[in-house]
Amino acid sequence: MTTNNSQPLLEVTDLVKHFPVRGGLLYRTVAQVHAVDGVSFGVQARQTFGLVGESGCGKSTVGRSIIRLTEPTAGRVHFDGKDVGPLKGRELKSLRRDMQIVFQDPYSALDPRMPIGEIIGEGIAIHNLANSSAERNQMVHESMELVGLRPQLTSRYPHEFSGGQRQRIGIARAIAIRPRFIVCDEPVSALDVSIQSQILNLLKDLQQRFGLTYLFIAHNLAVVRYISDHVGVMYLGKLVESAETEETFKNPLHPYTQALLSAVPEPNPKRRRDRIVLQGDLPSPIKPPPGCRFHTRCPIAMEVCQQVEPEYRDVGGEHWVACHAVGAASWRPDKVSASSR
């Protein structure tokens, strides 16, 4: 699936990642955690694809599987037309110069025993991008200035910085080798609200300056709306809806997407949505429900939803959705709110 007619820089097809659950005296595999089950999407060059959903839905696993920090169980990932899966050795090392990640927790993502100059310059050294230590130091200083840090701080250690500054260090480390694609794994969720906007604006400025492509993972829909060109909504390892950002927010079709959006504060009373409160708990990814995985909490679930998995299909205008009710004559988006009151 692509977001428009042009070839995407990143194309993910039927991505699957299952984690084994081991137990017993022989420590055998007794079950599988279905973290990601058949996710497909495309990301155009110089754009941002926002991936949203509840905690535990598989968002971060998708990001890590794409850049092969976690090896996927099945599926294909193509970057600039090249299949990422079979790459090994030098080819994989070369690819990783183009694909970087900014982690969620700025406190655990940095080695506390290394000064930040070495942390930022590590990728430069690994990929042999500098001809001398002086040139490497210069590249480190440039990266620090790009993210708003003074180059004179290179000898300091991570514990001497605030959370926002540490996230800037993580971003500087990612851009130091001038990648083309960055996975932003909830990069502002651990930060104060006052700092979040600064980091988001920094990411947007860097994207415009270097032509970066982002996969932006988050659970805050307001953040995703601000930074993303396209949004995908995940539930229990599945992508249930995907569309351009404004289309997603103005015309959500899947009941789960509507429930998420109904919880977003709206300052304009005329545009405020009726709150949709989902009943029940998120099912276990070890034994996901049959049929539509959302049917156990869906306010408009039908009998077919309990038995048949809905097809993930384009309903027009590159708006993809997996729901039996979408297109049914007896269903309208506004009925979700009415049935949940």
Radius of gyration: 21 Å
Structural class: alpha/beta
Main beta sheet strand tally, sense and closure: 8 strands, mixed
Strand order, largest beta sheet: 6-7-8-3-9-10-12-11
Query: Uncertain runs with pLDDT below 50, 5 residues or more?
Result: 329-341
User: How helix-rich are the residues, as a percent range?
Assistant: 25-40%
User: Approximately how much beta-strand content do the residues carry?
Assistant: 15-25%
Compute the separation of the termini in Å.
35 Å
Net shape:
globular
* Arithmetic mean of pLDDT: 91
Q: How many DSSP H or I helices?
A: 10
Find the count of extended strands (DSSP E, 2+ residues).
Answer: 12
Secondary-structure element pattern, one letter each? EEEHEEHEHHHEHEHEEHHEEH
Describe the protein's architecture and organization:
- The chain has 341 residues and is of the alpha/beta class.
- Helices cover 30% and strands 22% of the residues.
- The chain starts with 9 loop residues before the first strand and ends with a helix.
- The chain is built from 10 helices and 12 strands.
- The strands form 2 sheets. It has an 8-stranded mixed beta sheet, with helices on both faces. Strands 2-1-4-5 form a 4-stranded antiparallel beta sheet.
Summary of the model, kept short:
With 341 residues, the chain is α/β, with parallel strands linked by helices. It has helices spanning 59-66, 89-98, 116-126, 133-146, 163-175, 193-210, 221-227, 245-250, 255-262, 334-339; strands at residues 10-23, 28-43, 48-52, 74-79, 82-83, 99-102, 181-185, 213-217, 230-235, 238-244, 313-314, 320-321.
